[in-house]
Amino acid sequence: MPSHGAVNLHPMADELVHDEVHRGVATITLDSPHNRNALSAQLRRELTERLDAAIADSAVRVVVLTHTGPVFCSGMDLKEASGAGAERQGVNEFPAILQRIWTSPKPVVARLAGPARAGGVGLVAACDIAVAAHSATFAFSEVRIGVVPAVISVTVLPRLLPRAAHELFLTGETFDAERAAAIGLVNSAVPAEDLDAEVRRYTDMLVLGAPNALAATKEMLRRTRADSLAADFAAMLEFSAKHFAGAEGQEGIAAFREKRKPSWVPAD
């Protein structure tokens, strides 16, 4: 979803992943339509670089992961997986990408105008928010080619309703965006013509959040709960008090009282 005034940080002609930043939103685009944006070695490498750059850039508040061509991502590039060594390399690298998205201190939004399969679904699940066009479809196709959706299960299973996970992992059945929304894989399924507006609706809300508060909230959502309710409340009380007393908390309270935008909100 390029925007007027966006800054392209990596304008190389032969790259498979592009990025640009506009008003605090970094858009990372998978651009390998010749193989349906498969997770080739080059694409994995460039995606890692673009994610790292966006996370390190203080001007970036939100990351959008999108694509060119009719397919969001078809999963691992099976043409590169002809030997055990080649496949092992991909299996070793891919978890690091999923973990980078999952643990990113900045919210990550997936924008799907087309299908996701296998590892592509893992990418979607790793993102904090996912928006899909009605035309997008999904499938855990691994069992149908004799492999197991093991790696992607780490990000997918926390999103899915358990019954749906068993059904779809075991059958490999293709399902549509509305079903994906119903079982928790995506947040919103919209007509194709409304896709960019829906993504923008989310990013416009996300940039209103304070950077440290967003990162801390993501950390809170990932945390392992304490053994007892009392211990859980105690930990969260300390966590909350720290942020209330912090610079962002004090700025946010002051901005609310003074009826102005807090300092972290990007200028129009």
Automatic annotation (TrEMBL):
Listed Pfam families: ECH_1
Domain of life of the source: Bacteria
GO MF annotation list: catalytic activity
InterPro entries membership: ClpP/crotonase-like_dom_sf, Enoyl-CoA_hydra/iso, Enoyl-CoA_hydra_C, Enoyl-CoA_Hydratase/Isomerase
Protein family membership: Belongs to the enoyl-CoA hydratase/isomerase family.
PANTHER family assigned: ENOYL-COA HYDRATASE, POLYKETIDE BIOSYNTHESIS ENOYL-COA HYDRATASE PKSH-RELATED
Identification of the protein by name: Enoyl-CoA hydratase
Organism: Gandjariella thermophila
